[in-house]
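Researcher: Good morning. I'm working through a list of sequences from a screen, and I'd like to move beyond sequence-only analysis. For each chain I'm collecting a predicted structure so we can compare shapes side by side. This is the next one on the list. No need for commentary yet; just the structure.
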Amino acid sequence: MSENGRYRAANPLQRFVIRNGASVAAGRILAPTQRHIDALIFRISKGRRTLTSMALGWPIVMLTSVGARSSLSRTVPLLGLPDGNRIVVIASNYGQAGNPSWYHNLRAHPHASMTVAGGPSQQVLAREAEGSERERLWRLALEYYPGWADYEQRVTGRRIPVMVLEPETD
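Model: Good morning. Structure tokens for this chain:
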């Protein structure tokens, strides 16, 4: 996929996968499995790729944060949307009722690290986007994965958080 993984540049097979990936059934399958498969491929490829990045051309980051309750290091692959020198991640949790664990981890411990496939690890400070910034970043996110709009309609009682990962300065 060209244009850094944007939906409008996807080939027909990628568009099919992306459209169907937003279904409730796909969420039930992907939520417990995708992160494990992506992490495995990331290790096998020596940090260069994930299954999701190979199949869809999406920019995937490996986000490592401290567990909100456990205080243990946790790493999860996420679609990382570039916004200048920052990376934006969406806490959709596949359209499920609650926010994903990594979101709670970042809220409790906003200092984290991330690795963009093929690059070095860097320290970041996470914060939740609000107001007009959130709206702009949400529109950017939908350029990559329009399924988030389906998730937004499906979830009740929560607004899908948009998190900004900013490089930490020394």
